[in-house]
Recover the amino acids of this structure.
């Protein structure tokens, strides 16, 4: 019961902040709401017993990506204060499409309500979080770390992710490098 | 006592909000922020399925970490592109970047 209330509060907070992110005209305020939404998602990770991911979310999303976004907003600030509309001419169609998209997803949940029950029930699988010994939860980070360096599991994707990060680093520097003719 | 479907519905809502932002916003930085929301929604799904169906294996967590990595790379390159475009075109409004049209 307490868990449900905490879940509902965190979800409502996250979704409210997400709505602010996509509707606020002032982009700086939208970026601050984005940080709050990331914080809410980290809270959901904690509820799901994924402490490591919650910490990674705080470090990578709130610590790095939000700061990058705020830097980009400040470097293009001159355009932020104009009275131009925040939405393009298709905003109405976009809203309809997003609502229909959510409707289809919810319809799928409704169709599969036998498998993914919508109401909490301790007797039905997936209607309540499976109870696990504390050991399994604590061990999950160990299992994940070992799978990253196990040649039979994720060592190749792990190395490719490293190369991807390096390529993104170099690429970002090259793309944003000021050209000589721009300085005039 | 939280059903798995509650997480899936929150994730679907977050994804739809991000989708609306991507389609309706004019500013490229705002579009990028909405894309980050959509990636977060995907991650909630991955972690929820991991916790409810395979908590003894690392598959959900590992995939979520990979999504996190790709999101970081995407944000870095995307913002670099936006700043580069701003230098050349003096604009970050997505509709005005129509060099490839016609």
């Amino acid at each position: 019961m307490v868990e449900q209330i905490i879940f509902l509060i965190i979800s409502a907070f996250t979704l409210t902040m997400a709505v602010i992110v996509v509707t606020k005209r002032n982009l700086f305020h939208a970026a601050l709401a984005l940080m709050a939404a990331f914080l809410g998602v980290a809270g959901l990770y904690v509820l799901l017993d994924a402490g490591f991911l919650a910490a990674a979310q705080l470090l990578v999303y709130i610590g790095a990506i939000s700061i990058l976004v705020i830097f980009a907003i400040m470097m293009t600030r001159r355009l932020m204060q104009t009275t131009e509309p925040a939405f393009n001419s298709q905003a109405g169609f976009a809203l309809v499409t997003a609502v229909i998209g959510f409707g289809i997803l919810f319809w799928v949940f409704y169709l599969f309500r036998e498998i993914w029950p919508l109401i909490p029930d301790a007797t039905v699988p997936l209607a309540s979080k499976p109870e696990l010994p504390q050991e399994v939860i604590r061990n999950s980070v160990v299992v994940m770390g070992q799978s990253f360096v196990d040649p039979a599991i994720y060592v190749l994707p792990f190395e490719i992710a490293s190369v991807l990060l390096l390529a993104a680093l170099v690429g970002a520097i090259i793309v944003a490098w000021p050209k000589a003719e721009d300085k005039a | 006592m939280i059903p798995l479907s509650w997480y899936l519905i929150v994730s679907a809502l977050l994804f739809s909000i991000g989708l609306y932002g991507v389609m309706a916003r004019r500013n490229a930085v705002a579009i990028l922020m909405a894309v980050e929301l959509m990636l977060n929604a995907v991650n909630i799904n991955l972690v929820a399925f991991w916790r409810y169906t395979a908590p003894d294996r690392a598959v959900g967590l590992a995939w979520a970490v990979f999504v996190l990595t790709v999101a970081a790379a995407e944000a870095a390159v995307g913002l670099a592109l936006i700043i580069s475009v701003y230098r050349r075109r003096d604009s970050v409004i997505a509709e005005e970047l129509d060099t490839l049209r016609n």
